[in-house]
């Protein structure tokens, strides 16, 4: 039974869940380690998709840190944090989109073997984080943002592996660039999802008495 979100639709702080915090700390450590390893591998191999995935790891690390900071706070603060994270993810997606388009104007073929090896390691790391956080995917916007980050990362890693196979098969950089564009789209879509839910949670709610009065008026007018 998930206890961390028993008050997720209320302004009252939720009951702290030690498991949730432990999972976030583990996810933060994994993402920081993967960022350092993948950014080096991405630059060395010339892979745009690996570099995009590395930046995604860095962004997720910041998101997990923010989630740890607001865990246990009232819904309003959690929703504001989610709004900030959604904007960050959206900005990341737009950045990857622009840099990938610019990279398409250049030349060079990325090192497919490095892409494949690092892609498998990243998939294992993100798959583990996604499984840990799966039970919290239906919480408030803050919790959902953590799940969306993990889900998008795992999908992105699968795409990197497909890109590596495509680079080997075609001898060009286009599969790598195509995957980078997909990752950009995932970032933009995920960021918009989080922003929309956070904004909905921040909208003022009508008092229960007013809602009941409106329902009564509607029923008597029929």
UniProtKB/TrEMBL annotation:
Residue stretches spanning the membrane: 24-45, 57-77, 89-109, 115-134, 154-171, 177-196
Membrane topology: Multi-pass membrane protein
Gene3D superfamilies referenced in this protein's UniProt entry, alphabetically: Cation efflux protein transmembrane domain
GO terms for MF: zinc ion transmembrane transporter activity
Residue stretches making up the Cation efflux protein transmembrane domain: 24-200
Major site of localization recorded for this protein: membrane
UniProt keyword Membrane present: yes
Protein name, entry field: Cobalt transporter
Annotated organism of origin: Sphingobium cupriresistens LL01
Taxonomic lineage of the native organism: Bacteria, Pseudomonadati, Pseudomonadota, Alphaproteobacteria, Sphingomonadales
């Amino acid at each position: 039974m998930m206890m961390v979100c028993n008050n997720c639709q209320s302004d009252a702080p939720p009951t702290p869940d030690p498991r949730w915090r432990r999972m976030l700390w583990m996810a933060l450590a994994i993402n920081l380690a993967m960022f350092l390893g993948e950014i080096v591998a991405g630059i060395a191999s010339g892979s745009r998709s690996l570099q995009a995935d590395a930046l995604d790891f860095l962004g997720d690390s910041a998101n997990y840190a923010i989630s740890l900071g607001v865990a246990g706070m009232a819904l309003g603060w959690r929703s504001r944090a989610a709004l900030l994270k959604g904007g960050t993810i959206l900005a990341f997606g737009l950045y990857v989109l622009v840099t990938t388009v610019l990279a398409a104007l250049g030349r060079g073929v990325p090192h497919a073997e490095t892409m494949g090896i690092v892609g498998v390691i990243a998939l294992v790391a993100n798959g583990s984080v996604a499984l840990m956080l799966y039970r919290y995917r239906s919480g408030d916007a803050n919790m959902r943002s953590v799940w969306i980050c993990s889900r998008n990362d795992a999908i992105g890693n699968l795409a990197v592996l497909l890109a590596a196979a495509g680079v080997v098969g075609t001898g060009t950089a286009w599969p790598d660039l195509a995957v980078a564009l997909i990752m950009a789209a995932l970032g933009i879509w995920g960021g918009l999802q989080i922003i929309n839910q956070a904004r909905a949670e921040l909208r003022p709610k009508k008092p229960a008495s007013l809602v009941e009065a409106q329902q009564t008026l509607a029923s008597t007018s029929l």
